[in-house]
Automatic annotation (TrEMBL):
UniProt source species: Hortaea werneckii (Black yeast)
Pfam families (UniProt xref): Fungal_trans
Compositional bias segments (type: Polar residues): 1-16
A single BP term in Gene Ontology: DNA-templated transcription
PANTHER family, alphabetized: GLUCOSE TRANSPORT TRANSCRIPTION REGULATOR RGT1-RELATED-RELATED, ZN(2)-C6 FUNGAL-TYPE DOMAIN-CONTAINING PROTEIN-RELATED
Chain segments carrying region Disordered: 1-67
Keywords: Nucleus
Single GO MF annotation: DNA binding
Record-linked InterPro entries: Carb_Metab_Trans_Reg, XnlR_reg_dom
Domain of life: Eukaryota
Name of the protein described by the UniProt record: Xylanolytic transcriptional activator regulatory domain-containing protein
Low complexity composition-biased segments: 17-26
Amino acid sequence: MPTASATYQPQTHYNSPPQHQQPQQQFRPDLYRQDSHHPYWPPHSDLHSGPELPPIISPSHSEPHQQRLSGDVFLPYIQLFFQHMFPIMPVLDRQVFLDASLYSDSSSMSSDMYCFLCAICATTVVQLDASIPQPSPLHPQKSTDDVFAEECLRERKTYDWIDSCTPLAVMVPFFLFCYYGNHEQSAKAWHYLQECITFSENLNMDDEQSYTKLDPVEAQWRRRLYWLLFITERAYAVQRRKHTRLHASVQLPAVFESEDPQLLTGFVNLANLFSAVDDSFVSAWRGSRRQSLCNEAWLAKTQKQLDAAALAVDSGGGVSETQQMDISVTREWLHVLAWQMGVSNGLIWGKGEGGMRLDYPIEVGRRVVEITRGAKGMALDSHGIGMEQKLSDIAGCLADVLRCTAGDTSSTFLEGKQYLHTLLQTLSSMRGKESRYLKPLMSKLDGVMGYELSNATLPLPAETAATSANMPPVTSAGNDFLMPGGGRYSFADSFGMLRTLSMSGNLGMPYLDAPIQQGPGLQNEWEQRRESGRVYDEYETKAMGHWMGGQRIP
C-alpha cells in the first residue's frame, strides 16, 4: 500500500534520496500551524449522538470557541497504527508522525492536520477493536473511535475543507471511510470514499504527467497514495457492486528507492492483484455486461490472471505476514467471486478446469485454511472488518455448495466440511471476539455440519477424515450426487440451485449492515448488504424444496 508522508506535507522540501535509501524530510513545526483561529469546545461536554455527513457549504467561523482534544492523546494511537496497520496502509512517514513534538500543542495544528489525526485515530481504534489492549477511553460514555470521528467532523465545520486540496486533505475522508466501513455504515463509507477520490482527481493524481512536475520524493508518496485509493475503491466497489472511477493509469511506486523495499514489494503485489480486477470484471460482477461477454474463455483467463498477479507471494516474495494474509486471502476471495459469475452465466461444469468446477469453492476453502493456519492473530486482525467479510464470503459460498450437493460421500465433499469447520473456528475469534458474521453464516448450515445455530461452541463435524476412509466408494455415474436416505441431486439440480441463489444475490455470505435494534432485551436482526428484490418462481421453489428443508422461500 502507498505510504503517506511527504504526501501530507506538500509544502515540505525534500532532497532527492540516493538509491535504496529512505526519503529524507526536514521536519518543520511551522507546517502544522495556521493563522485562522478555531472554535473551542469545553472538555467533557456532550458529544453528538453520532457522526454526521459534513455540510456542502462550510459554516461561518462565528461559532463559539471550543477546545480541541489535547495533542498528547493522538500519539498512542499513531504508535498502534505503525505497529499493526502500517503494513497494509503504509501511507505515513514515521519520522514525522512518530515525532512527539508534533503533538505538543494541538491548537497550533492546521485544521487539515488536526482532522487527519482524529480520522486516523478513529480508524485505528475501530479496526483493531478488541484484538489488543488500547489506551484508556477519552470519554466516560462514548467509545473512543466515536469521540475522534465526531471531533474530526466538528473541526471540519470550522474551515473550508473543500478548497483545502492537499494530499493530507485526501486522507481525512479516506480514514473517515475506513471508520464508517468498519462500522458497516456503507452509505457514509461510500460517500467519504468518493470524496477522497474527488480530492485526488483535483490534484491530478490520476494523471501520470502530473508526477513529472513534482519533487521526486513527493511524487513517490503521491503514487503510493493514489494506489492505496485504487486498491480500496476496487475492493469496496466489488463488495458493494458499485462503479469504479480510478484506473491503473499511473506507474506504481518504486520499490528499491523506498525506505522499506520489502514493505513496498507487498504493496505492489496487492496493487497488481487489484489491477487484474479490471473494468470487465467489475461490470460482469455488477451484472451489467451481456452474458455473451462473460464466457468460458473470459472466466478461465480471469482466474489465471488472479493467480499470476500474486505469484510473488507463492514464490516466497519476502513480504510481511500481515501483507501475505491480505494478498493471499484477497486472491482466493476474488477467485470465489469469479466462480460465482460463472455460476450466474451457466459456465460451471462437473469436471474440467479448476475455476469452473462445481466443487471449486472446496479447493478455495482448502487453500484459505492453509494460508491462515498458524498465522499470528494480528496478521488477520489488523485488516479489520474487511478480512472478516472475505472469510465469511468464502465460507458462505462453501456452505452453499455443500448444501446443494447434500449427501455426496466422496472425500472431496467430506473434506469440504472440515475446511468449513476450520473457517468457522477462525471467525469465532476475530479481533478478540466472535465475528458478527458467524451466526448469520451458521444459519446456512442446518443439515450440513451436524450442529445447530444455538450451539454455544462449534463441535467437530460428524464426518472426519478418519471416517471418510471407511466410506464406500461413490457409485453414482457422471455428475449425479448421492442424497441422504438414498435420494439424489443430479448435477443439473445442484447447479440449478446454486444458480438460483446466485441470480437472487444470495450465493455466499450476504453482507450485513449495522444491526437493527429491536428494543431492550431483544435480539438484533440483521439487514442484508446486498438486498435482492427478486422473487423465486414456482419452479425454483419446488426445485429447492428438499434443500430448504421443506420451507418455502418467500
